[in-house]
Write a structure and sequence with these properties.
The protein has helices at about 5-10, 60-75, and strands at about 20, 25-30, 40-45, 85, 100-105. By secondary structure, it is of the alpha+beta class. The mean pLDDT is about 90.
Length: about 120
């Protein structure tokens, strides 16, 4: 555990969180500043790396568990119409907590859909 990492503190229960699901190594909890109708953070309980940029093949098992829990959460949250799994890397991309994590985003109306990401042409 990193003593100054907010997600490490959440993982050990020092900071309360609205936990949605967990496994032996991964925790899923609601984001306190949601960017979508459903916004859940998926984190490893142990601080392994700061972001996806630091991952290696040695992290395959924990990543598998993170993706599996994300899919479980999406089912429980009734995101059958679709959802996103996003990881920001660095401050220019919006990363504010340096603890590997994914944002599970969904719950938009099928009429309006999720906000579109810019394509390669900048649109």
């Amino acid at each position: 555990m990193s003593s100054d990492c907010i997600f490490c503190a959440v993982a050990v229960g020092r900071i309360p969180a609205d936990v949605v699901a967990e496994s032996s190594k991964v925790l899923a909890f609601r984001d306190i500043n949601p960017a979508a109708p459903t916004h859940v953070l998926i984190i490893p309980k142990r601080h392994i790396v700061d972001s996806v940029a630091d991952l290696t093949s040695d992290h395959a098992e924990i990543l598998g568990e993170m993706f599996e829990l994300a899919a479980d959460v999406a089912r429980v949250e009734d995101l059958d119409e679709g959802w996103r799994l996003v990881s920001n890397v660095g401050p220019a991309a919006g990363q504010t907590v340096h603890h590997l994590h994914f944002h599970l985003l969904g719950g938009w109306s099928t009429d309006t859909g999720a906000p579109r990401l810019p394509d390669e042409r900048g649109g």
